[in-house]
């Protein structure tokens, strides 16, 4: 196992009727920026429940943070946050609202020229407004990590940044909020959590027995409970299991002491930046290509995956690995998510554009072995055209 330091201070309130914890969590803050998305919380009652809990606070609302949160929109909230002297941000939504709120939190305190430099130039920052979250869509793990992914429309860029300063102070996870999600967003969440686990698991072995066993178990839970949620959207236990699995898939625990890949995500972000398709849809396209093209160097972990996640027990390991990759793509299809660029009307000519964008950004060495160059990205995408 590799050396590691693990730190995760996010307090989780999980289960039924957890909004009551807001009162205590916010007792030391006065001016609260309440951020949310494009309106789902007003339809499903979450907005009213939050407002009820905040009656003694000075609330400044900022709604309208859309999927793949945009720098241009978020900068308006930064202005408001500065003028209103806010001391806490309460983010109520999915990964996009939470990520957008993390950017706002860092940008309000940012002292340099343009807060975008925190993403494009990896500029360090040493303070941020504190945030808390109410999660409405299990998928990204943003509720229990310090990362965020922001899109800049003007330059068609989608970039990640992160810091322990952006880890929420608390996150409230009530599985019943999932009942109002469209099926497509449940499927997206299943795929996102699945691929987060794979990015930290299917690399090369370092004798990390806990992490390997834990990743395989988490993938089985995501497959089984995710399928149950789609069969009966009101199955509380299945929703609860899926919600907690998605959080656990990206809270730092799986990555501790093991190599990480993340090539599927970095390639996927370029596809969203250029063509606007959902984050999880990009992952469903790219992951089967990455696993097939990088099969040889990932073979030991792919075999572990075949045997421990898909219960494949055949003598020929090559056959087992091919079956596991096939079953993975088939699982994505069973969720109603397609896996080819052409399924989303993305032409073959897009492949060279995506490779050129990666090359321009110096993302030329992806993967756990830093050897996925633009030529290999091209091969991966051609296999999924
Ligand atoms: O905007 P509203 O009206 O709230 O609607 C949202 C949005 O349309 C809707 N929704 C959310 N909760 C709902 C609901 N509709 C009904 N009932 C509810 N309870 O769902 C739609 C999608 O929401 P979004 O937040 O965009 O989805 P998700 O949670 O999948 O987040 C995706 C974003 O997170 C980033 C992605 O790149 C993408 O920008 N990621 C963040 C990560 C992180 N911070 O660690 C890691 C991930 O790999 C990912 O990159
Ligand atoms: Zn993701």
Largest sheet: number of strands, sense, barrel closure = 6 strands, parallel
CATH superfamily of the largest domain: Dehydroquinate synthase-like - alpha domain
Compounds present?
Answer: 5,6-dihydroxy-NADP, zinc ion
Separation, N- and C-terminal Cα atoms: 37 Å
Give me the CATH fold name of the largest domain. Answer: Dehydroquinate synthase-like, alpha domain
Question: Helix and strand succession?
Answer: EHEHHEHEHHEEEEHHHHHHHHH
Order of the strands making up the biggest sheet: 1-8-5-4-2-3
Please specify the SSE layout and strand pairing:
Blueprint: E1 11-14, H1 21-25, E2 31-36, H2 40-43, H3 46-53, E3 58-62, H4 71-83, E4 88-93, H5 95-109, H6 117-120, E5 131-135, E6 147-152, E7 157-162, E8 170-173, H7 183-201, H8 209-231, H9 236-248, H10 263-275, H11 279-293, H12 299-308, H13 317-334, H14 350-360, H15 374-382
Helix pairs in contact: 4-5, 7-8, 7-9, 7-11, 8-9, 10-11, 11-13, 11-15, 12-13, 14-15
Residues 140, 192, 196, 265, 279 line the site of zinc ion.
């Amino acid at each position: 196992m590799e050396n590691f330091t693990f730190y995760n201070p996010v307090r989780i309130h999980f289960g039924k009727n957890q909004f009551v914890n807001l009162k205590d969590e916010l007792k030391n803050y006065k001016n609260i920026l309440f951020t949310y998305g494009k309106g789902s919380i007003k339809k499903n009652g979450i907005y009213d429940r939050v407002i009820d809990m905040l009656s003694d606070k000075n609330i400044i609302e900022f709604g309208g943070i859309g999927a793949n949160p945009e720098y241009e929109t978020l900068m308006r909230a930064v202005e408001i946050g500065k003028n209103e002297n806010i001391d806490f941000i309460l983010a109520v939504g999915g990964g996009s609202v939470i990520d957008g709120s993390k950017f706002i939190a860092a940008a309000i305190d940012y002292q340099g020229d343009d807060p975008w430099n925190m993403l494009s130039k990896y500029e360090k920052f040493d303070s941020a407004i504190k945030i808390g979250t109410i999660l409405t869509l299990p998928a990204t793990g943003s509720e229990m990590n310090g990362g965020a992914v922001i899109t800049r429309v003007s330059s068609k860029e989608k970039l990640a940044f992160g810091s322990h300063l952006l880890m929420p102070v608390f996150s409230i996870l009530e599985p019943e909020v999932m009942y109002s999600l469209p099926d497509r967003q449940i499927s997206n969440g299943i795929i996102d959590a699945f691929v987060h686990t794979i990015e930290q698991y299917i690399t090369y072995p370092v004798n990390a027995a806990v992490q390997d066993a834990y990743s395989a178990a988490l993938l089985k839970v995501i497959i089984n409970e995710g399928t149950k949620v789609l069969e009966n959207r009101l199955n509380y236990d299945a929703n609860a299991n899926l919600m907690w699995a998605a959080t656990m898939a990206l809270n730092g625990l799986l990555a501790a002491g093991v190599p990480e890949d993340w090539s599927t995500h970095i390639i996927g972000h370029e596809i969203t930046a250029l063509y606007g398709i959902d984050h999880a849809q990009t992952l469903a396209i790219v992951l089967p290509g990455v696993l097939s093209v990088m099969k040889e160097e990932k073979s030991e972990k792919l075999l572990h995956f075949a045997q421990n996640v898909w219960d494949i027990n055949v003598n020929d390991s090559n056959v087992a690995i091919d079956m596991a990759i096939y079953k993975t793509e088939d699982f994505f299809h069973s969720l109603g998510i397609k896996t080819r660029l052409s399924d989303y009307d993305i032409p073959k000519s897009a492949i060279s554009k995506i490779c050129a964008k990666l090359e321009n950004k110096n993302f030329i060495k992806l993967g756990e072995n830093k050897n996925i160059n633009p030529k290999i990205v091209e091969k991966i995408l051609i296999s999924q055209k």
